[in-house]
Amino acid sequence: QRVVSGPLALRVPLALPGKAFGTSASCRSTFNVQDGSDFQDRVVNNPKPVVVDFHAQWCGPCKILGPRLEKMVAKQEGKVLMAKVDIDDHTDLAIEYEVSAVPTVLAMKNGDVVDKFVGIKDEDQLEAFLKKLIGA
Q1: Domain Thioredoxin spans what residues (predicted)?
Q2: Residue 62 catalytic?
Q3: What pTM was computed for the model?
Q4: Which among 13, 75, 82, 105 could bridge 20 via Cys, Cβ 3.0 to 4.6 Å?
């Protein structure tokens, strides 16, 4: 999965030189979960709030929501992070967090799920979701 997101992220600054900072922020604030212990370390034990995007390669709406959510998370300048979890690679996490449909997005603070939504949201709705999580 890293191979897929890596080259795409690298191509963007070349196409949009003015957006180079925003893109690098998005790379820093968004990561793909590698396994259960990675999830524990970088999501559950993270002092910062984390948005967890449960998605799948075959899910059309996920392909719309994912980049939109990444963009909104990057705008928060590091106040919130985004973890991407492919449910086909991490079925155990999907079951543990009762994900019955994708995309499902959880808002986590101090290891607890404090908010969630299923399906697509527009930028205004995502911004409100993130601001509530950050406490802004």
Answers
A1: 19-135
A2: yes
A3: 0.79
A4: 13
